[in-house]
Amino acid sequence: MADDKHVLTVNIVTPDGLVYNHHATMVVVRSTDGDIGIMANHEPIVAPLQIGEVRVRRVDKPGHEDRIAVNGGFMENKDSVTSIVADSAERARDIDLTRAEAARERAERRIEAAKKEKNTDDLLRAQVALQRAMNRINVKKSI
């Protein structure tokens, strides 16, 4: 492995279990305040996450980034371990693009229906569903 003082452990956990666990030189997450890049020996930090892409530069694959679609949650970094606890997460290689595009179309229809009915609760839920679907689509297409 690369020089241990320059190595970061990145793990992503959802209610369904461990989704991702690798050694990295850097991880970039989308927090509610913007993107945050973390490298080994970064100061301890806890940050809430938006629906967005997590990018991981793995030690064993220089020049390559793993991409993971994360749907909210939070990130903690301490002692060169970055842990992400997410509502749901899916690695780019595991995303079914056809299913993600169908989810986008359903969300768009729900948005239109909620607007016609002036149902703000349904509208907000449908907008979040659309964000999640678009995140999955964008992560899949980025590989």
Our measurement of the CA-to-CA distance between the termini, rounded to an integer number of angstroms, reads 25 Å
User: Count the strands?
Assistant: 7
CATH 4th-level superfamily of the largest domain: F0F1 ATP synthase delta/epsilon subunit, N-terminal
Domain module tally: 2
Integer average pLDDT? 95
Q: In what range is the share of β-strand residues?
A: 35-45%
Q: List the secondary-structure elements in sequence, H or E.
A: EEEEEEEHH
Tally of contiguous helical segments: 2
Q: Architecture of the largest domain, according to CATH?
A: Sandwich
The largest sheet, given as strand count, sense and whether it forms a barrel, is: 5 strands, mixed, barrel
Please give the structural blueprint:
Blueprint: E1 8-14, E2 17-31, E3 34-38, E4 45-58, E5 65-78, E6 81-85, E7 89-91, H1 97-117, H2 120-141
Parallel strand pairs: 1-6
Antiparallel strand pairs: 1-2, 2-3, 2-4, 4-5, 5-6, 5-7
Helix pairs in contact: 1-2
List keywords for this structure.
Single alpha-helices involved in coiled-coils or other helix-helix interfaces, ATP_synth_F1_esu_C, five-stranded mixed beta barrel, 30% helix, 143 residues, ion transport, ATP Synthase, domain 1
